[in-house]
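Sequence in, structure out.
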Amino acid sequence: MEIGTGAGVSGIHLLRGMRRDGVLTTVDTEPDRQQLAREAYREAGFAANRSRFICGSALDVLPRLTDGGYDLVFCDADRREYLDYLDEAMRLLRPGGVVCFEGAFGRGRALDAAHHDDEALRLRELMRVVRDSPHLAPVLLPTDDGLLCAVRALGT
């Protein structure tokens, strides 16, 4: 599951890491972006049945998806909604599944207490919630703008 299709770059990498029969579900509000991603996936050699595109707001789409039906939820969309995506990801993920948030540093603002804009505050809260959750084992990778990943504990 990918939140934020964009031009398909992340999706290509996700598809490369999946089993050959795996399907990537990707959600975006922009149909033009999804069309670009379809073309990128095709040019990268992936069959059309390897991806499912859903156009709409993630917070409208995610509640309609299957509980425990996903191994990975990759979030690369509105960072102010990441806490809401985390709630949905906990429902969507199988035990042992992984949730990832691209841009966790918020262009450095989330790491600097002097910044009080909404995005920086929400990213700091996301990091606190993930760190303190007894149901998640987190890691924060200092790649580009930060990649926060967490494994959903088995049995939760």
